[in-house]
Amino acid sequence: MTRSLGDGCGCFPTGRHYPGIAHLLKTTVRGLAEGIAADTPWQEIEIALLDVETTGRDASVDRVVEVGIVVGKGGEIVAKYNWLIHPSIPIPAEVSAIHHITDDMVADKPRFEAVASEIAAALRGRVPAAYNAPFDRAFMMSEFSRAKFDTAGVPGLTRDVEWLDPLIWARDIQSDEKSRALGDVAARLGISLENAHRAEDDAEAALRVLFALGRDPRMPRAYGALVQEQRRIGQAQADARRHWRS
């Protein structure tokens, strides 16, 4: 989704203010969810933060065993969803040791295609988000593709909608810290995460992290500006990692 953004706040999408030139700013915004205006304050939008637990790290072959979605608006949690899912393949012992989901726990649970419509309904009409979004998004895209589910009109399940990602903002705002693992970032912000590596608990903690980081003036207030700045920062971070690895 592409929109035009006239930023009436007198600032560039970076959030840096330049008084008196707001009328000159007209920026094309890519990646916005359908039906949500670029100048809408993102805190006033329902955000569906999704987390998955899986059988491994490769979305092309591994499968989802749990999906959690926590919805927030205005800094408050307004809905929670959770599904345990039969992955159709064994869960490796070393992976179970991380999220503590075993084959026995999912033996009588539905396969993904049986709950795909429920998951899509929880995302529909909301802005998608995830902590380290490329990971969760890749698994969602793979699972919905295997299920042959029509994802048209579901934000986050089409390739043109940008997911909000608290990890990108944590790397930027907490740049002096060594660890940007969800549990460590949450702890520094005074946010509890008791059952780490379970989907609903991780999703709620990550959403609370997003809201807490959102109080920092470096995060733009308008939805369109937030998406633009996140894309810019995320690309800079990716370039820096590539440079470091080389």
TrEMBL record:
Give Gene Ontology CC terms.
cytosol
Q: Where is the Exonuclease domain?
A: 46-219
**GO function term, MF aspect, one:** DNA binding
InterPro entries tied to this protein = DnaQ, Ribonucl_H, RNaseH-like_sf, RNaseH_sf
GO biological process assignments: DNA replication proofreading
Q: Which PANTHER family match?
A: DNA POLYMERASE III SUBUNIT EPSILON (PTHR30231), EXODEOXYRIBONUCLEASE 10 (PTHR30231:SF37)
> What function does the entry list?
DNA polymerase III is a complex, multichain enzyme responsible for most of the replicative synthesis in bacteria. The epsilon subunit contain the editing function and is a proofreading 3'-5' exonuclease.
Q: How does it assemble?
A: DNA polymerase III contains a core (composed of alpha, epsilon and theta chains) that associates with a tau subunit. This core dimerizes to form the POLIII' complex. PolIII' associates with the gamma complex (composed of gamma, delta, delta', psi and chi chains) and with the beta chain to form the complete DNA polymerase III complex.
Protein name, UniProt field: DNA polymerase III alpha subunit
Q: What is the lineage of its organism?
A: Bacteria, Pseudomonadati, Myxococcota, Polyangia, Polyangiales
